[in-house]
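Summary for the steering committee. One of the milestones for this cycle was to obtain a three-dimensional model of the protein with iron/sulfur cluster bound, which we needed before selecting residues for the alanine scan. The sequence and ligand used are listed below.
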Amino acid sequence: MDLTRYINTFGHAMHQRYGQKVHKVSINAAFTCPNRDGTKGIGGCTFCNNSSFNPNAKAALAVCEQVAAGKRIIRKRTGARKYLAYFQAYTNTYAEVSALKSLYDQALAIPDVIGLSIGTRPDCVPDKVLDLLASYRDRGFEVWLELGLQSTSDKVLRRVNRGHGFGEYVDAIQRVQQRNLQYCTHLIAGLPGESVNATANSARQVVEMGSTGLKLHPLHIVKGTQMAREWKHGEVTPMTLDEYVQVVANIVTEAPPELIFHRLTGTANKQLLLAPDWTEYKWKVLNSIYLELARRDPPQGTVLQVFAGSDTQQITSVNI
Ligand code: SF4
């Protein structure tokens, strides 16, 4: 299975840029989130249990220890020798700039760490933080901002208690783009209140607005969340594998060739996952996407552009 035949994956894009494998190393820097501490909300997004996202990153360890441990595992598994410090858990810009700088500097001081990937919410990227990230980029580091949007529909964002709307994303990307920062938009397929194809519409919208990367994953219903309670009461119906594969294939084939896909699916901690059960099998999902793309056989960037409102342009996680 060679996904890069059909998709501009993050791994492929980094290899093109650096001539070797570059892999993200997850870090849990013990941040919290304004949607949990009462600033924006309490209880968080209804699907969120951060333990399900990065069970290997232990907040009790210092950044350098987490990166060292992650490097060992990734090097053995993938052969990668260069890394991006991926601040993943919770909201990784939610602190004073001086505190953020200290954490990011620690990561960038580690040998073979060539950059940062910072996961955050669109309403948590003040200008000072963006200026800090731009300063790392100007010093030659690879810098990505990962903006969790999940859906462009305010109705859906309210339904999952996201604590921000699409407007905050629009404001954030305007300021991100002013600084020419690379950014990846996270979308979740299968949120309650959305049609099966809604994520493709969200993807079109954010790509049209200039997103340089996309990270996709299906909704996971995990223990300890409000969503789990709704699912038990029959209020949430997870997507089927086939529905998800079709949505991803639609997004990929319509995406412009330069768009970088950071992720095409995601897995949750087995002990926490309730549904859908197929999300447990990352390679089965990726293989199904690959087979669907092979069946359609237009690689990314070859379907007529609909994103940019122009009929002349071409359009076209598990980290890939
Ligand atoms: S998904 Fe992100 S924004 Fe939502 S509650 Fe969890 S950490 Fe906060």
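Key point for the committee: The radius of gyration is 18 Å.
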